[in-house]
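ping. complex inputs:
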Amino acid sequence: MISGYIRPDGRAGIRNKVLILSTVGCANNVVKRIASQVEGTIGLPNVKGCGQIGRGIEIMNRCLVNITLNPNVYGTIIVGLGCETTKPYELADKIRSLSPKPVIIFTIQELGDTLKAIEYGCTQARKMVAEAARVPRESIDPRQLILATNCGGSDATSGLAANPALGACSDILIAKGGTVMLGETTELIGTEDLLGQRARNETVRSNIYTIVHDLEQQFISNHIDVRGANPTPGNMKGGLSTLEEKALGGISKGGTGPINEVISYGEIPSKHGLVIMDTPGYDIESVSGMAIGGAQVCVFTSGRGNPVGNALIPVIKITGNPETYATMHENIDLDTSGIIDGSTTIDDVGAQLYSLLEQVCNGVPCKSEVFGFDDFAIYHNQEIWCTCDLA
Amino acid sequence: MVKQALRMNDKDNVVTAVTAVEAHDQVHVMHKDGSNVGTIEAREAIERYHKLALHNIAAGELVTKYGQTIGRATQSIQQGEHVHTHNIESVKTHD
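pong. complex structure:
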């Protein structure tokens, strides 16, 4: 059984956070000071929020709105500077049109200075934390759960143990009506035909090809041959023979189900079951994109070991490498290497992982949470700066 | 020590050695659900996490792991032989 917090928009969270959200880097220090002063809040600094153009603005605005809709968030205090391209008051209006969750907005420029902004923000945050504490935990349906998946620091054990074990766990959640997100488009290159065959319909199939081919074109325009560079010499030494083999090991995280939808970075899925989100290869941006899209929890596989957490969602770490688990068990929640030595099976570890997932959903902190690792980064592109060749 | 290999899917014609294997070792092949697939004899030394052929594979035949195509055999491969970059290649259907 899974318990959580039912939000006024009908979604269900497994954590109950008050978010202090910066709309632009210029407001980050105010956000950090409010969050450090008021227990029960999480501060989310912004890596940009101004000086962006085109699709960069579109992605940033979508992400800032959807972050607040994440069901682990009780309510949000938006802190702006006042003149940024993200237009904080318009963001607040957009959020209010999508969900009745609490939203408070102010800018540093309208309040006068940072001291006044911090004081006002702390007062508002204290009130919101008190309100959030009144929301009870109650039983929630696994249909409401969205599981983010990611892999980082992969090695030969990843495709043999950790990723297939996560796949078995994904299949369990999907059988109960839940949703699983598969991302990291860089690692889908080479599997587009196989994923295309699993697409629910022609639109999904076409979208799979679009995200893979668009990314590959970006690599080609930067004179990078992804297919030729993969698998890497290290991968080959580890036993991987072809790009398809490497990529299949990665996509096994999502399980065996049909692919029901392809969504943009930070977008909220409209379908249940397995969905693909177009996320970059950088792990913190990839996990953050899925959290922005509404995932309440993540399972992250690693071969060489990885400590990252996330500000919005618990990130459960698993590895198939027994040496990594031995040296890094303070950061890793589950050792799946029994699959490799034959002492257990993929299906059994998948069931064990699902049980761990339930415990974490019910409030048991995973290791990245215990240490307070609050990594978060919104992917942003469309940069403009001088790239000319100087004499 | 028992030599073991893992078969990820019923359709697979290659299995992954999860212990290093010497030539002529009897390799116990296990399915991912824990069931016994059978025993094959390794034809050569194979490093841990590298693959060996579960059946004879003809030149040009597709090589299957995870139940899906990972490449095509560039030469005939005997049961128990090392399967790697020297005898399979990527199937680049969209190049």
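Chain B touches chain A through 32 residues (CB under 8 Å).
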